[in-house]
Amino acid sequence: MSGSAQEKLVYEYALVRVVPRVERGEQINAGVLVYSRQAGVLRAEIHLDEARLLALDPAADVAGVRAALDAVAHVCGGGEAAGQARDEEPGRRFRWLTAPRSTVVQPGPVHCGLSADPAREAERLLELLVR
Question: Model pTM?
């Protein structure tokens, strides 16, 4: 760092989307994944707006969607809660979580950014893009 300027680190992020009826393609954003190899960060922030979900599909399985979103957060966090992914490096877990899939809970495309504090980007992006 020089003077008061902070070093910007590269991070990647993807939205976590809920697509209650895959055949219709309607979706709501329900979370964000942030990964920065430089900063050693892999974070998930999740927020399910049940009213929005039920507006898209009044018969949506809210408990099932919550369970799937919890699983995303557990894999992101690693450790025993991540199941088979517990021993994987953060980058591999991020790539697994952001791989395209045709399920009710899906990742959006991966985007890149620069931040002096990638660990805080998940909260910022959640407020900006999800809530």
Answer: 0.89
